[in-house]
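look at this:
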Amino acid sequence: MAAQAQQVSDETTLNGKTSPHYYLSNPALLLNFLTTSPDVCKRIAAHPTLTNTLIEKILAPDFHDGMRDVVRPALGSFPPAGFAEDFGSILQFLSTLLLYQAEMESVHPRLKELIPKLKEWNKQYKNSHVKTIRNVCERMIGQINGMDPEMITMMRKFQEDALSCGVASCRVRGAASLTVCGTCKIQRYCGRDHQKADWKYHKHICNKGLVDPTQYLKQQIILWVGYLALGMELRECLR
């Protein structure tokens, strides 16, 4: 999906593997945040080029070590995230995208080449404090090999049930209890009052992603292998 256009650049600092921006950039924050929404995942799944580009990046022989060794910048007043957090986030991101693919065989011709890497990382990070890495590696192996349809349905329902109102203080959850923004078809609200209250934040992103052509979406993936840092809310970045 298209994140913020100003982040797209051909500068060496963004595309060189020695730069932290090759792995981490501000579009990553928006992209990874939005994929917590099943609506976003379904729309990304409609553009297989995006998922394929991410798979190619992770399959690169120097991907793991390059991401590990890069110097990480701070995010405003937040300290840099550690490598394990970043690595777990990108694996989780791919797993989420695969959840909404109809047929694994049609995703990428080299998809099964990820399995040896996932097994290696599962073993390498079995004692890591970031449990996401091991959990996602195990889950993604199952996804690639062909996950049980009932399990897929359960995981998708879990994501639907985790949807929440766009007002952070609201405790209403679940797709059945929420209505979707009529413009972007992504953000959910418990009612009109909270939708109006959230507009001062939501207007910055409403319908500004997910509408650009596949080539632009592909650029965003190429620019970023990223993370959702320290649980920071998106609205804090947009103020």
Observations:
- The longest helix spans residues 83-99.
- The CA atoms of residues 65 and 83 lie 10 Å apart.
- The mean pLDDT is 75.
- The longest strand covers residues 179-180.
